[in-house]
Design a protein that fits this description.
By secondary structure, the protein is α+β, with helices and mostly antiparallel strands. The protein has 5 helices and 10 strands.
């Protein structure tokens, strides 16, 4: 087994622990493309958006998908902008979420994938600065980037109830 390669093969998901470089980038092996279906195989840039993830960290997906979420929302509000008295409405919470989106270009290179972490998310301490560690989680269309300590806190909570959590997950998958 090559040094540093302790991955369990043939699973549909993966994690990578990466140090943020001096340019606030993370570098990932090309193998991430085997678990994140929308990362293109050919070199180039994929324009992506990111928002807070539902479980933590940030979730990243193609910008075109983000625009598909924003467009109908914007169209529904086009004729009547929201008033201050509506600020407690649930749909304003969705606007708050959609407003917390940042561009995150993914560069697919010949031998690796590079992602520059957005400055606002680093300033807000959602992601670490240069020298910090992140965990990247990939699974189907899901790509998440977490501060490493927050990731491990999250998965430890699930690990405490591993047998029940696996059973519940399989039940949920059966109802999918």
């Amino acid at each position: 087994m090559p040094r540093g390669d302790q991955k369990i093969p043939d699973v549909p998901f993966g994690t990578w622990v990466v140090t943020v470089d001096e340019y606030n980038r993370i570098r990932l092996p090309l193998e991430i493309r085997t678990v994140v279906s929308w990362i293109d195989m050919k070199p180039g840039q994929i324009e992506c958006a990111s928002m807070p993830g539902p479980a933590g960290g940030i979730q990243v997906w193609p910008l075109k998908d983000h625009r598909q979420n924003v467009l109908p929302f914007a169209e529904a509000l086009a004729e009547t902008p929201p008033s201050a008295s509506e600020s407690s409405q649930k749909w304003v919470d969705v606007a708050r979420l959609l407003a917390t989106a940042w561009l995150v270009p993914i560069n697919v290179e010949a031998s690796r994938i590079s992602i520059t972490l957005p400055e606002p998310l680093r300033r807000a301490q959602q992601l670490p600065q240069s020298g910090g560690a992140v965990v990247v989680f990939g699974f189907g269309n899901i790509l998440e980037i977490w501060d490493a300590l927050k990731w491990h806190d999250h998965v430890r909570a699930t690990a405490k109830r591993r047998a029940a959590a696996i059973s519940e997950a399989l039940e949920d998958l059966g109802e999918r």
